[in-house]
Please model this.
Amino acid sequence: MAKNNRGKRLYKLPSRGRGICPLCGKTRIKLLYPYRTAANELLQVCKNCRQK
Ligand SMILES: [Zn+2]
Model:
């Protein structure tokens, strides 16, 4: 699973993997990390908001 979030793979994602992070509200950032909320929803968040 190395370098899953790099290169050409991103171009297959909607918006090429970019969007607005639901946690920090940063725009045009790459949303590459799944984050499970307290409501058990799965969101894609930016690298700054990913869990350890
Ligand atoms: Zn974020």
